[in-house]
C-alpha cells in the first residue's frame, strides 16, 4: 500500500491532546477554587483524571504517528 500523507491517528492524537488539556485545566480550576459540579461523586475529581488520561493518550498518538517519522 502506498504510504503518503499524514496518518489519521496523528490528527486524533492532536484532538485528544487539546481536549485533554482543556478538561484537565477545568479540573485543576475546580480543585483550586473549590467550585465543583453538583454531581454525586464530585469528590473523585473526574475532570482531573479524564483530562490526564486524554492528554496522555493524545501525546502518545501525536508522537507515535507524527509526520516525518519512519515506521
Properties at a glance:
mainly alpha, 2 helices, 0% strand
Rg result: 16 Å
Terminal-residue CA separation: 14 Å
Q: Beta-strand percentage?
A: under 5%
Number of strand elements: 0
Principal-axis shape:
rod-shaped
Count of domain modules: 1
Order of helices and strands: HH
Structural class: mainly alpha
**Helical proportion, percent range:** 55-70%
Mean pLDDT: 91
Unreliable spans are none
The largest pleated sheet is described as: none
**So how many helices?**
2
Structure description:
The chain has 71 residues and is an all-alpha fold. Helix content is 63%, strand content 0%. The protein is built from two helices and no strands. Helix 1 (8-33) packs antiparallel against helix 2 (46-64).
Provide the fold topology.
Layout: H1 8-33, H2 46-64
Helix pairs in contact: 1-2
What is the gist of this entry?
The chain is mainly alpha-helical and 71 residues long. It has helices at 8-33, 46-64.
Amino acid at each position: 500500500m502506498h504510504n503518503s500523507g499524514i496518518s489519521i491517528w496523528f490528527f486524533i492524537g492532536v484532538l485528544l491532546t487539546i481536549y485533554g488539556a482543556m478538561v484537565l485545566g477545568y479540573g485543576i480550576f475546580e480543585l483550586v477554587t473549590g467550585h465543583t459540579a453538583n454531581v454525586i461523586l464530585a469528590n473523585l475529581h473526574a475532570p482531573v483524571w479524564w483530562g490526564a488520561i486524554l492528554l496522555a493518550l493524545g501525546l502518545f498518538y501525536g508522537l507515535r504517528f507524527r509526520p516525518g517519522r519512519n515506521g
